[in-house]
């Protein structure tokens, strides 16, 4: 069991060129496909549990990937109704000449050809880029309106928000007024709660409350906007404090010695305006719930299984069912937990690792129709754990169309080519140059086609993809993130977009039978 007590997760990125186009690889028909059922567990056994493949004759999950043309860590993404794909690509190249210690900046990358190539559509005013430095990248595309939001953090000076209603042609800029340090942010929207809001919605084109939640070091807190993102008012703390007095008083080793941090995962809102912010709190999978637009929060334990780290993920369907994923603190395998009463109570955790996968990181989830979910994470089939500093990691996508059933069926596949891993060595904690957030979304149209992000840290750079050399070592010395020092051969950080070519659809009853036509 490892400690992950970092209170501030400022992104570290590598220098890169400014190329903004990418050719897609062909469909990955030779990936590692598997069909299997999960394993329900109320506690993690000492011996590593696992799933087994089952016979399956239905449509297989087929994936492909494309590089976005720029280095990118913590890449979130969004898809609008027309099928345009947006992601963020951030690297240490803000200062001319690339001095020894550079600063990071983020590009907003957009694809209009089905994720095959990307162009730079970053916020500009009169041709001048408005956001030149950012400590964390983040993009959010609200699925019903299509409004695109780009957030650039300014360290101790809050955050800078830009949004566009015309696919990035023009942008509106505003300043988030959350106090103090902003870090590891999340932005999401939902309707006014049934109990009403403090203010009326004033943007006719955006009739939703916009929430901005962030790690403020000592506490996690949220702000909200009733005018589509132009102005924000502070809401309340999520209930997540950096230090837990109960655990700290006894230096409880099972709960990170009381140092809980204030990081959290992406928030979501349901169709009735309830707000949900997930996280691991001193290794306890938790969720903060608000029914009054963030004015008050109630914290609920999701599972008794101890969680590795602080970042979990949640999705909510149109009926209000919640789907929560995290990795356990013993074997680092992914678990799915479901609530059918808006987060008040949770079912028995379900181990969902594909057969042969022994460790994962950053499990992230989205949902389409009720019971139809998609999850992504990097995973390894090595059985040696930290003893194997050359072990390879692949990008997995897992799908279930009957997650609400008693014994759901899961389909999984890898997105990267078999002989070209996305990481080598340790992929724990921040997974070398992946850093934190990965993302997955179900498209609002196109049968809910699945899109996901990845970071390829293991390329031909330093022969990582072709030679079994030591890669990243998360337990080693503190790294110099700006220069990739101490990352071993797994030192690259190319941004990757994964898309579903065919297989089960997350919207409707018919499977996806062909690649996107865009």
Outline the structure in words:
This protein has 518 residues and is an all-beta fold. It has one domain (34-502): 6 Propeller (Neuraminidase). It is 1% helix and 35% strand. It has one helix at residues 245-250, and strands spanning 34-37, 39-40, 62-71, 77-79, 85-92, 104-111, 119-120, 124-125, 128-129, 137-141, 148-153, 159-164, 172-176, 186-190, 209-215, 219-225, 233-241, 268-269, 275-281, 284-290, 298-301, 313-316, 322-327, 334-339, 350-351, 359-360, 364-367, 373-380, 392-400, 409-414, 423-424, 440-442, 450-456, 494-502. The strands form 8 sheets. Strands 1, 26, 27, 28, 29, 30 and 31 form a 7-stranded antiparallel sheet that branches. Strands 2-25-24-23-22 form a 5-stranded antiparallel sheet, with no helix packed on it. Strand 15 and strand 16 form a beta hairpin. It is globular, with a radius of gyration of 21 Å. It starts with 33 loop residues before the first strand and ends in a 16-residue tail after the last strand. The model is unreliable at 1-29 (pLDDT under 50).
Provide the descriptors you would attach to this structure in a database record.
mainly beta, Neuraminidase, seven-stranded antiparallel sheet, five-stranded antiparallel sheet, 518 residues, 1 helix, disordered N terminus, globular
The overall average pLDDT, rounded, is: 87
Quickly name the level 1 CATH class: Mainly Beta
Rg from alpha-carbon coordinates: 21 Å
Strand residues, percent: 25-35%
Shape: globular
Give the N-to-C terminal Cα separation: 46 Å
CATH architectural grouping: 6 Propeller
**CATH 4th-level superfamily:** TolB, C-terminal domain
Q: Predict the CATH topology.
A: Neuraminidase
Multimeric organization: single chain
